[in-house]
Design a protein that fits this description.
5-stranded mixed sheet; 16 helices
Length: 429
């Protein structure tokens, strides 16, 4: 893994990274533009996501979505795009002989989009429909409340998709101006893994980045652990069941304790051998599924516990979750449990590094976006196996504090439970 990585920094500020994989006949490739929801002004909420949709609807050389789809579709692979809080990505999975044409089509779409008003109206209707669907879906509402509660009045708490008001304000002129100013070569990347010729790819993507703005990489407000959280948020729904997400701000992907966070989350709620599953599910039968998961980016992280329960058992379930949180912060993890988790995640890291071009691409992407450096599998496994019981205990004590926690509840409209009392039960039993 990463034995044949080559990285070239272009004069325009962009970066080209390739990983040549011997024996491969395919390639996974992508353009990464440093533009996402956290880099937007409040009045531009959702514009990065809107622009991503519009880029693939037609460009100067390939003036319609139909033409773009027909050219790329003949390779039998796939092309797609995505917007996160920091990045807009356009990627494809194609046979090696399709690399040149794919870069040409995606590159022209990124550098020279048409942004026609009729296409904008079509896409506006589609995205407004997506916003309405999210508002009607209880799970989507709950996760939006998690972000909003952990980061109130911060760009991290805003939905990437935007709001009906911000999407309604977009027209062809404003979107073209947004693209010219925000699609910059500085900080942008092109990544490819598989059967690649690095020097040839550099020459193919150079004109794409040269055509973008040379303005500085769009800035964003950094996440701060001192930012206050919203203690409780409630979604009142018409469903008969109840649910909760207990969310904490964790450590960032750039933090050396990120591996301890991975193990800590797994001990807590990572599958049927986890403490929460054995307690809430097996011993007490309060939820069909209960678990914990984490997310980590360059400057922030989260740990969440979620479960769906009946309204009359939510108090007991929260008390059990609180008990396990206190146990992890108050007592070292046993040697057998720790050894099992360390070996499990070392094995996952090794299996995840098994050579295939899409996996290589994704790992290379994570290294460059979050760490700005390449990390080998041996270094990763060594880090995982060096996590100690005291590392886990001290991290649990730091993260699982009441002032660092937001409790998001999904409650039926007729449920009489007090949200404030449920939060008190979580921490005080």
């Amino acid at each position: 893994m990463f034995e044949n990585v080559k990285i070239t920094k272009l004069e325009n500020g962009a970066c080209v990274a390739t990983s040549e994989m011997k024996g491969s006949n395919v390639c996974h490739l992508g353009f990464h533009i440093p533009m996402g929801s956290r880099r937007e002004k409040a009045s531009e909420a959702g514009w990065s996501h809107f622009a991503e949709h519009m880029v693939l609807r037609g460009s100067e050389k390939y003036p319609s979505q139909k033409i773009i789809n027909r050219i790329l579709g003949r390779f039998g692979g796939c092309k797609n795009a995505e917007t996160s809080d920091l990045w807009t990505r356009f990627y494809a999975h194609v046979p090696a002989y399709g690399i040149g044409k794919t870069i040409g089509v995606l590159g022209d779409a990124i550098a020279h989009p048409l942004f026609s008003q009729p296409d904008i109206e079509i896409e506006r209707n589609a995205i407004l429909s997506e916003i309405r669907m999210a508002a009607d879906d209880s799970a989507s509402r709950l996760f939006h409340l998690v972000n909003e509660s952990l980061w109130p009045r911060h760009p991290l708490g805003r939905p990437i998709i935007g709001t009906p008001e911000s999407i309604a304000s977009i027209d062809a002129n404003s979107l073209k101006a947004f693209h010219r100013a925000r699609y910059t070569s500085r900080g942008a990347m092109f990544i490819a893994a598989g059967k690649v010729d690095h020097d040839e790819i550099v020459e193919r993507v150079r004109p794409v980045f040269d055509a973008l703005s040379d303005a500085p990489e769009p800035r964003y407000r950094r996440a701060s652990p001192d930012w206050p959280v919203k203690p409780v948020a409630v979604d009142r729904c018409d469903e008969s069941g109840a649910g909760f997400i207990i969310s904490f701000r964790g450590v960032a992907d750039s933090d050396p304790r990120k591996d301890a966070q991975t193990l800590l989350t797994s001990i807590l709620g990572g599958g049927s051998s986890s403490r929460l599953y054995r307690s809430v599910r097996e011993r007490h039968g309060l939820a069909y599924a209960v678990g914990a998961f984490f997310g980590a980016e360059e400057d922030n992280g989260t740990i969440c516990i979620s479960a769906e329960v009946s309204p009359d058992s939510i108090e007991k379930a929260l008390a059990l979750c609180g008990h396990e949180l206190k146990a992890l912060a108050g007592k070292p993890v046993g040697r057998q449990e720790l050894a099992f988790l360390r070996e499990k995640f070392a094995s996952i890291a090794i299996l995840g590094n098994e050579a295939n071009c899409e996996g290589e691409y994704n790992i290379l992407k994570g290294c460059l976006e979050n760490h700005k450096k390449i990390e080998g599998i041996d270094e990763e496994v060594e880090r995982i196996r060096s996590v100690s019981a005291s590392d886990l205990q001290s991290l649990a004590a730091e993260i699982f504090r009441p002032e660092n926690c937001s409790l998001v509840l999904s409650l039926p409209r007729n449920c009489k439970a007090s949200p404030e009392k449920l939060r008190e039960v979580l921490f005080n039993g």
